[in-house]
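Entry 12.
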Amino acid sequence: MSTLFVTHPAFLDHRPGVGHPERPQRVSAIEEALAAPRFDRLARELAPLRDDVEAAIVRAHGPEHLLRVKAAAGREDFPYAFDDDTAISAGSLEAAYRAVGAGLLAVDRVFDPAHEARNAFLAVRPPGHHAERNRVMGFCLFNNIAAAALYARKRHGAGRVAIVDFDVHHGNGTQQIFWEDRDVFFGSTHEMPLFPYTGEVSETGAGNIVNAPLRSGDGGARFREAMEARILPALDAFRPDLILVSAGFDAHFADPLGDLRLTEEDFAWITLKLVEAADRCCDGRLVSFLEGGYNLDALERSSAAHVAALAQGA
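Predicted 3D structure (tokens):
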């Protein structure tokens, strides 16, 4: 068995503006890290433009949201800003479609008994976990991980899907989309108070949501404690058919957009824990999506540690 790595050159063409932290070089840094000889055994595929991508987006967001983003993509005054954080450029719609398509592809691969991929990492952009059902937000146009979860349910009969998010920012969009869905578990560690100012312990949805907020300055010990005390036991109790991961490496101590103090070793640790949970619950099926991570050196090292742990589990 192997770990699948999915990306595409089109992700470099999403350009939200000069000086924007969510820049094309993020994907280039990850590709450079995973070009090392120790990653030669990764299975590699390009993120596709699929015929069913708009249906997958509508399943997560509804048709009005899709039409709003497509209308913005048809403008000529690029980059066009939806808000202070989120903008679209000439290449953004294709990149966003391929980011969703990467998730659909990876779900297909981990459910296919004839395919060698046991788990997958998707270096995609724009990221997705802040995009709410009817709102572009926080660098995100479409919620890639929500689209993948709903696709797994429809295409592969996944009765229960778990999403674990360790980005420094709370995945408010994912939480909102699945707020009343008892068949989707959402567990998150994140810094508070920090954008988007959601993710309190009291936010539990239909009993399917577990938030474990951290404080500014918290490091690996506090992060691991939160995962082991709250997120991982709830994940095991949920017994999912698939685990999806919002892998935000902006919780790294060197990242400029947060103030948690995690290291590459912490990302490797949680990855191995999630791989072990996938082995116990769902035949190892796990798909990880790139979310945050804005210091390129830290992103390169952290993504390498994450993928090495995935490959170790595969």
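Annotation: The longest strand covers residues 184-191. The chain has a mean pLDDT of 97.
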